[in-house]
Amino acid sequence: MQQNGKKIALIGAGNVAWHLGQALAAAGHTISYVYSRTATHREALAAKLPAASPLAHLNLQHTATDCAIIAVPDAALATVAQELQVPENALVVHTSGSQPLQVLEQKPSIRAGVFYPLQTFSKEKPVDFSSIPILIEAQQEQTRQELKALAESLSQSVHMVSSEARKQLHVAAVFACNFTNHLLGISREILQQANLPHELLQPLIQETIAKATAFHPFIVQTGPAVRGDHNVLEEHLRLLQQQTGYRQLYELLSASIAATASQPPQ
């Protein structure tokens, strides 16, 4: 174990906890416990971690835990935080991008913080934590420094960000990741309906992301909406007339593209 490695309890066994727990263990920290309401989930993750025991309750008060990481859905965060019992002065952090630090500050006996890895996680797909931005927040300087050290044991990109700024970042991430992924799913379904392989779009997708990373995306926008090619737009809408949801999305996004084209970024 690395010097000053922490004894950590993972509260949650979903996608974030799955990857974060293994990354922390690989960095020399000890994951002592894995809690999940679902027995098979906590057992599966604990089996991936050398020193972890699956836990069916939230009472860690008489353990050697010095850090509890809450990685649960946002809707469950406040309830789990209230029920969690940890040793006095233990560090308790959550991994949510949209929830404020204050959701943990209802218990004066803990040192609260935020430890938000900005990435999309799926259990089936390995990730490299060294390049993942980790956003941290805490009120106390000592807690901030501990979180910084913990984050730097995983990543080369560690940032101190307030709850309000993190919410804005989370909105941006939903546009960049979740909406983009959904649109890619729609494009695949359209290809399937035409009996065309989805691999045809791979080079286009890769070039789009490469350009959007290298330049301001609005500046390198292409397609019929930015050109004002109404004949093509109308033909596409005709092709989508049996798919009302996709047609509405097409109209909304085309209008947004046209609006941003008329007001280029400064």
TrEMBL record:
<dbReference type="Pfam" id="PF10727">
    <property type="entry name" value="Rossmann-like"/>
</dbReference>
<dbReference type="InterPro" id="IPR019665">
    <property type="entry name" value="OxRdtase/DH_put_Rossmann_dom"/>
</dbReference>
<dbReference type="InterPro" id="IPR008927">
    <property type="entry name" value="6-PGluconate_DH-like_C_sf"/>
</dbReference>
<feature type="domain" description="DUF2520">
    <location>
        <begin position="132"/>
        <end position="256"/>
    </location>
</feature>
<protein>
    <submittedName>
        <fullName>DUF2520 domain-containing protein</fullName>
    </submittedName>
</protein>
<dbReference type="InterPro" id="IPR036291">
    <property type="entry name" value="NAD(P)-bd_dom_sf"/>
</dbReference>
<dbReference type="Pfam" id="PF10728">
    <property type="entry name" value="DUF2520"/>
</dbReference>
<dbReference type="InterPro" id="IPR018931">
    <property type="entry name" value="DUF2520"/>
</dbReference>
<dbReference type="InterPro" id="IPR037108">
    <property type="entry name" value="TM1727-like_C_sf"/>
</dbReference>
<feature type="domain" description="Putative oxidoreductase/dehydrogenase Rossmann-like">
    <location>
        <begin position="2"/>
        <end position="105"/>
    </location>
</feature>
